[in-house]
Specification:
- It holds the Pfam family Cullin.
- Residues 61-94 are annotated as: Disordered.
- GO terms for molecular function: protein kinase binding; ubiquitin protein ligase binding.
- It is a single chain.
- By secondary structure, the chain is mostly helical.
- 66% of the residues lie in helices and 3% in strands.
- The chain has helices at residues 2-13, 46-63, 78-109, 114-134, 145-157, 161-184, 188-212, 214-225, 229-258, 265-278, 287-291, 306-322; strands spanning 19-22, 27-30, 42-43.
- A hairpin with a 4-residue loop joins strand 1 (19-22) and strand 2.
- The longest helix has 32 residues, at 78-109.
- It is elongated and about 85 Å long.
Length: 337
């Protein structure tokens, strides 16, 4: 009885599961405590041994049923499962090979064809671009920039960068041609205002379009074409809108500049600065007009022409006084002035 109690104590107190299995005899030998006076391992009854062997086999089966084919074992139970690990190693290699083949097959199945691009990805991008180009600042349109960026990213990764770039340029060119046609029938009294609306709306749209196409810009336009997406899109507005109407716009701007407040100063400044940004050489068509809004348009001041500058200022003051702009109260000024 004392031996059985000692055996039970060893069974319950062995927290590290230090035991050895003898598959031939069906007995399990538990290692005693190193501090124990008994140097040899003790055996327990066959009933307990059989039950513990069955529990250990179930434990091994549960721990080895991972979907990745890996065997999770206690460090002290390697002697029990060594035969099982050796027999399962070929199956683990085959499972790893199957995972590699499945990954390759999934990549091929997820490859985007040109038909997929035409039927799925580009229609979504085209719809979003339409919303950005024609939106009214007062209207709220819900657009998922994350989805647009994701579509662009997938198209670039699937080697459709060139096709995407051509479609984008064609889409915006078509839009700008329509804008130019609308300006063509605009009355002269509203032409400056309508041109300013078209330019402002287009530049605002580019602030949204360029960032979502930044992946294409970085890995295709800048790398292969050595250009920038924003510069290309601004050049489209110059070629299809501004250049076609600049000869009509400049005389109207000169007329409005000669008659103060005929056009709002903010509109005048926006149009003149916009034209200079699109094509700086247009400043030579009307230097006096552009110099009023753009610094350093005129040549630098020369000392020998100071008298000419003074005469020009006096002429301007005279014109302003004749047009109803008084010089103000001159009573408190000294007679010499």
């Amino acid at each position: 009885m004392e031996d059985m109690e000692d055996d039970c104590f060893l069974l319950n107190d062995d927290y590290n599961h230090n035991y050895c299995a003898n598959s031939a005899s069906g007995q399990v030998l538990y290692l005693g405590n190193e501090l124990s006076d008994v140097p040899q391992p003790r055996s327990i009854s066959p009933v307990l041994a059989t039950r513990d062997v069955a529990a250990q086999e179930n434990h091994s089966k549960v721990c080895s049923s991972s979907s990745s084919g890996l065997k999770f074992m206690d460090s002290d139970s390697s002697s029990v499962n060594s035969d099982t690990s050796e027999t399962d190693s070929p199956s683990s290699a085959s499972i790893a090979g199957k995972l590699t083949l499945n990954s390759a097959s999934k990549f091929l199945m997820n490859a985007m064809t040109e038909e997929d691009y035409r039927t799925t990805y580009w229609p979504n991008l085209e719809k979003a671009i339409d919303h950005l180009l024609i939106q009214n600042p007062m209207d709220h349109i819900s657009i998922s920039y994350e989805q647009i960026y994701s579509c662009v990213y997938k198209c670039v990764c699937q080697q459709h960068s060139e096709l995407l770039y051509k479609d984008l340029m064609l889409k915006i060119t078509t839009h700008l041609r329509q804008v130019s046609s609308d300006l063509q029938i605009s009355p002269p009294g509203n032409f400056i205002e309508n041109f300013n609306i078209a330019l402002t709306r287009y530049t605002d749209a580019l602030q949204c379009i360029v960032p979502v196409f930044i992946y294409m810009n970085k890995f295709y336009i800048e790398t292969k074409l050595n250009r920038d997406l924003r510069e290309d899109l601004m050049k489209l507005f110059t070629d299809h809108v501004a250049e076609k109407h600049v000869n009509t716009l400049i005389p109207l701007l000169l007329e409005a500049h000669s008659m103060p407040f005929q056009v709002r100063p903010s509109t005048m400044a926006s149009v003149v600065k916009g034209l200079y940004t699109l094509w700086p050489d247009w400043a030579h068509l009307a230097p006096a007009l552009f110099s009023g809004f753009i610094p350093q348009i005129n040549p630098p001041t020369v000392e020998s022409q100071l008298s000419d500058y003074a005469a020009r200022d006096q002429k301007l003051q005279m014109e302003l006084s004749l047009n109803g702009f008084p010089r103000g109260d001159q009573s408190r000024k000294r007679a010499s002035e």
